[in-house]
Design a protein that fits this description.
Length: about 180
């Protein structure tokens, strides 16, 4: 084989570059701009529900009729929680809509089943919304409360030895504490 058979023509290369640029432009206009910046020039973001992703914290709070001055002031806490074998317990925070929470927790000695969830303020039906359900020995993240109410973790020790959780939280919340 000669080297000429492996060469791409300038015309084919130009076609590929223009095709990639056109694809990138479509993705930019239909997905990235609506989801990241709230800019939706052709309405695709609204059609796909991506316009909701770009909602700022202030917009979320405004939709719920709450301003950040009503939310708890920013604070930072570290909590140690003991979970006996076979025991399940909850640790809860009260948060306003749009309030931010930076959180991380580490389990000493094993992994725990957990459900990070929230319960709307005043709801009497028992409704709750799960945000993360898994089994892990450490988790960290940033959470923006979608509604006013209690938000927090349910942990269950499915093992046969006691486990200790080191929880670090920072944000706008009031501590409700442990519930067993």
């Amino acid at each position: 084989m000669s080297d000429d058979q492996h060469m791409i023509s300038k015309k084919a290369l130009l076609r590929g570059v223009l095709g990639a640029a056109a694809f990138a432009a479509v993705v930019l206009v239909t997905i990235i701009l609506p989801a990241e910046y709230g800019i939706d020039p052709i309405g695709a973001g609204k059609a796909f529900g991506l316009d909701k992703i770009a909602a700022t914290d202030d917009a979320v709070a405004a939709d719920k009729g709450v301003t950040f001055s009503e939310a708890a002031t920013e604070r930072e806490d570290e909590v140690t929680i003991n979970v006996a074998p076979g025991q399940g317990l909850e640790y809860k925070l009260h948060m306003m809509p749009g309030a931010k929470l930076q959180h991380s927790w580490v389990v000493e000695g094993g992994a725990l089943y957990f459900d990070f969830h929230g319960e709307p303020q005043g709801d009497t039906t028992g409704y709750f919304e799960s945000f993360t359900i898994s089994t892990a020995s450490k988790v960290s993240g940033i959470f923006n409360a979608p509604f006013e109410g209690s938000h927090g973790w349910y942990w269950k020790n499915k093992g046969d030895k006691p486990l200790v959780i080191k929880l670090t939280i920072k944000g706008n919340y009031d501590i409700l504490g442990l519930k067993q």
